Amino acid sequence: KNNKVLHISYPNHIAYNTTKILKSNGINAEYLSIGRSKIWKKYDFFFEQKSHYSFLREFYILWFFLVKYKIIHIHFLYTVSKTGWEIKFLKMCNIKIIIHLRGNDARDKNVIQKLHNDFNDLNFHKYLIPEWVEKKKIIKTVDHLIVTTRDLLDFHPNATYMPFFSPIDTKNKFNNNFKKIKIIHATNQTRVEGSHYISKCIKSLQKKGYPIEYIFLKNESYEKVLKILKNCHLSIGKLRMGDYANFQVESMSLGIPIITFVRKDIIEKYVYLKTSGIIFSEINQLNQTIEKVISNPRKLISVSKQVKSFINKYHNNIKISERYNKIYNKLYKC
């Protein structure tokens, strides 16, 4: 076996950029994409899950490809097989397995019921994708567990919280032209983002006469989203969960101020968030929060510098790569 780490995920920019950043910091990482996508086509290797001779195809890639690695780093619970049966076999070959949970793949119905008094089966789909329930059993067998947002520690207290990497290209000059205030919201999961409520708030402020240009993007390519984002004044999202996530990091990396929701207990525990420049808001206070911000938009110029400084310190790609390296080196020695 070589000392390469194989990252496995569905086709997306997060997994690809993770391996690219790790490589640039001396870590030998490669990316295996499971399936194809119209909006993301970059990867090192590719495997299509098909029903025709599925077991034979899965066993072939397991025996002739996966076993070459000492560590396999799995994102979003995506495995070569749909059930994850190969994980047990890989463990028998002394291959170390990391599961990297990034959202609904981490959540558990029982924990959610304890956290949310108003939770019921009718809104179950907002928090947990049913097809992951059975697959989550493999989490108990892995060598290391990582989560990307602090609220996911509720479900897996022994996991390592690993901040998101910053985008590789973060050169940007904040748009100082406020004739039209450009507000962006981008997501592929409208229910957990509060997208409907965001649109409702924007429409209400537009009716009041505020010069807002609202940009809502869903299922768009990473390149297109970043290109549009660079010209915006404000980014809004992640209002229904407990912590900011990847698009908020991407926004701040470009110096775009954000409005998001972070739980009070998380802000109190991670006190540096208080001076981050992040504009925190409960979803039921969003209208007032946006109005306060856009009533004096020139303040966003200083907030832009503040969030950029925050990202450079707390989502620093070199420092985060070092944290990954410590985990990998520890597993190499086991």
Shape: elongated
The percent of residues in helical segments reads: 25-40%
Structural class estimated from helices and strands: alpha/beta
- Which radius of gyration do the C-alpha atoms yield? 21 Å
Number of E-state strands? 12
Biggest sheet: strands side by side, in what order?
3-2-1-4-5-6-7
- Average of per-residue pLDDT values: 92
| H and E order | EHEEHEHEHEEEHHEHEHEHEHHH
Main sheet specs: 7 strands, parallel
Tell me the number of helical segments per DSSP (H or I, 4 or more residues long).
12
Describe the structure.
- This protein starts with a strand and ends with a helix.
- Helix 6 (195-207) crosses helix 10 (286-295).
- The protein is an alpha/beta fold.
- The longest helix is centred in the C-terminal third of the chain and has 17 residues, at 317-333.
- The protein is built from 12 helices and 12 strands.
What can be said about this structure in brief?
This protein has helices spanning 13-24, 54-64, 86-92, 109-115, 190-193, 195-207, 222-229, 246-253, 264-269, 286-295, 299-314, 317-333; strands at residues 2-9, 29-34, 45-47, 69-75, 96-101, 144-147, 160-161, 181-186, 212-217, 234-236, 258-260, 279-280.
